[in-house]
Write a structure and sequence with these properties.
The protein is mainly beta and 147 residues long. It contains 1 helix and 11 strands. The structure holds deoxyuridine-5'-triphosphate and magnesium ion. InterPro entries: dUTPase, dUTPase-like, dUTPase-like_sf, dUTPase_trimeric.
Length: 147
């Protein structure tokens, strides 16, 4: 079990910490810590605060992903999906929402706007090489096997 610390930031005692809505949910839902309702016009993007900062073990990352219900019903998604929370980030976690729908969408304080999924990262060390090992695919990509 990985221990992740959430620190509620001042004035947000009423905002729930990220939580799973079902026992085996992959994502912890994030709540908007906006002081007043915020409206996104069609095509508009805004950075929405969540009211907490966090600390997780160094081999974890957290991904901020859209909620499919908001995407389907209102065209609301995360512009930088999936957003990346680095293990050494101690600032407020924020969600970059964009309205791809055709109607304005208003975010109320406390509303669930996105979800956070934790991932374990492999240890990686990079080194420069003059040659790379051959493969059957080689440099083929971007649909070279057909559609
Ligand atoms: O949706 C997001 C994406 C990022 N962050 C925070 C946590 C993350 O650790 C930090 C940096 O994010 P990222 O590496 O994606 O952005 P960057 O443009 O590379 O900024 P930096 O130079 O600060 O790494 O910003 C969020 O709160 N929400
Ligand atoms: Mg970065």
């Amino acid at each position: 079990m990985h221990q992740v610390l959430f620190k509620r930031l001042g004035g947000n005692e009423d905002i729930p910490l990220p939580s799973r809505m079902s026992e085996w949910a992959a994502g912890f839902d994030l709540h908007a810590a906006v002081e007043e309702p915020v409206t996104l016009a069609p095509g508009e993007r805004k950075l929405i605060p969540t009211g907490f900062a966090m600390a997780m073990p160094a081999d974890l990352e957290a991904q901020i992903r859209p909620r499919s219900g908001l995407a389907l019903k209102h065209g609301i998604t995360c512009l930088n999906s999936p957003g990346t929370i680095d293990a050494d980030y101690r600032g407020e976690v924020k969600v970059l929402l964009v309205n791809l729908g055709q109607q304005p969408f208003t975010i109320e304080r406390g509303e669930r706007i996105a979800q956070m999924v934790f991932q374990q990262l492999p240890a990686v060390a990079i080194s420069e090489a003059d040659e790379l090992p051959d493969t059957v695919r080689g440099a083929g990509g971007f649909g070279h096997t057909g559609v």
